C-alpha cells in the first residue's frame, strides 16, 4: 500500500475515525476476500498498512483506509498498538519537522524464512486465521520511505529508508536503526522493485539525514488505555497516536547517536 | 503453467530430452530469479510443471520446458520420479485412449495450511532452498484437467478434473480419486480462477467419465533406475516414462471401482 503525505495533507482535520468502519473489499471475488469474521477472536489486530491518521484530510479518504485490503493481522500489544504506531508517527514527523515537504511511504507484509536450529534448513512458517483458514499472518512488515527535498521535482534528491520489523512485540527502547535494511532485501522478499526510476545520484540515506529513533509518548499510551476501557478501541481497532502534539519534541532532532551496526537481514 | 495436448502433438517425435538442458529464466530480474545453484544439493528434484514428455513435437518446445520458471522443487523418490510421473502419464492417456481429442492441463504449486495438533492453529510451513534461501518448496501441487469433447468447439462439453497432491512420497497403490478436490478449492488456494468462462451446462466431471487411477509400469521404473545408474538422470533431472507404450493397457479403461469418498481438502 502506497501513500503520500505533505504538510497540507497532515494539517487538514476533516475526518474522524469514529465515523470509519472496518469493511470487506467488495471489489474482490468472495473466495479471495478477507472477511471481518476471519479476524474475530483470532487474537490479532486488524492492522492498517496505510495508517488512518495519515488520511485526516477527508472522511472518505480515512474511510478507505478501513477496507480489509489495507489490513493485515498484526500483533496488538507491543506492536500495532505500540512500536508500530510509534514508527507511523516517526514517518509523520518527517513532514511535521519541516525536513521534507513531501514524503511517500510504501507499507506491506512479508513472509520471511528462518533457519531451523535443528536441521539447519530455512523455512517460512506463518499462521492463517479464519475458519476455514483464510487470511495469512505476516511474519514481518516493511516500510519503504521516500523523503523528498522538493515536491514533484525531477531533479530533487530523495532520502530513502527501508525497514523491516517482525510482527511481534518490540521494546520501545529498541532503536529504529536496528530495523533498517538494504532496499534490495525488501525487493527480494516482496518481489517488487521500489526505486528503479530513481537515479543513484538522486538518492540519499534517510538514516544519515535524520535520527532513526522512535518517539514514545507515554501520555498517549495512557489515553489509549482509557479509550480501550471506554470501549472505543476494542477487538483490534488501531488506536492512533493522539492528535495533540503540543510540546512534543521531534524524533528527528532528538535521540542519541545511531546504535549498533546494521544487523543481518535474514533470520 | 498451462499446456494443450492433442493426438497430433503427442504423436510427433521431433525432440529428445538428451538435448535439453535446465536453464535459468533470463527474462526475470536477477533478484527474483531461481538459480541452478539453488537446487544443487537441496535434496529436491527440479520438477517440471509442464512435462517434457508432453512437448516432443519440437526440440524448441521441449527445451522451453527446461526453464527454471517451469520448475518447482519436488520430492524425487516416491513422487516426481514415481506417482507424479504416473499422473502425468494418466493425462496423456486421456488423449491416447481416444477419449478426448483435446486436453488442456494447468499445473502449479500450492502452499497449504495444516492444523497444528498442539495449539489447533492453522499454519503454512515450507522450506526455502538456496543460499541465501531463494526458491520455495511447495507443500502441494495441483493439476486442473480439461478433457474436451471437441477441438475449439464453443458448445462442446468439457470434462473437468481438479487434483491436489502432497509434495511427498505417495504409494502407487493409492487411487488418484483420493486426490480429487472441488475446483473451487484450488481456486481459493491459488488465487486464480480456472473455468469462469465455461458455462455450467458444458461441464462434466472427469472422474465420472474415466477411471481416475494411475497406471504403474514397473518395467519403466527398472529402465529409469538403469538410466540413473548410467548418469543420465542424476541430481534432479526429471525422468519421464518410457515412450515405448506397446501392449500397455489404458488407465482409463482399466482399474477397479472408485475408492473411498473424496476426502476433506484442508489438512
Describe this structure in words.
The structure is a homodimer of 267-residue chains. The first copy, chain A, is of the alpha+beta class and 267 residues long. The first copy, chain A, has seven helices and ten strands. The model of chain A is unreliable at 230-267 (pLDDT under 50).
- Give the terminus-to-terminus CA distance of chain A: 25 Å
In round numbers, the mean pLDDT of chain A is 86
Helix residue percentage of chain A: 10-25%
- Global Rg of chain A: 18 Å
Number of helices of chain A: 7
Range of strand content of chain A: 15-25%
User: Oligomeric status of the shown chains?
Assistant: homodimer
The largest inter-chain interface, given as chain pair and residues per side, is: A-B, 22 and 22 residues
The number of strands of chain A is 10
Order of helices and strands of chain A: EHHEHEHEEEEEEHEHH
Shape of chain A: globular
What structural class results from the helix and strand content of chain A? alpha+beta
Low-confidence stretches of chain A: 230-267
Give the spatial strand order of the biggest sheet of chain A.
1-4-8-9-10
- Biggest beta sheet attributes of chain A: 5 strands, mixed
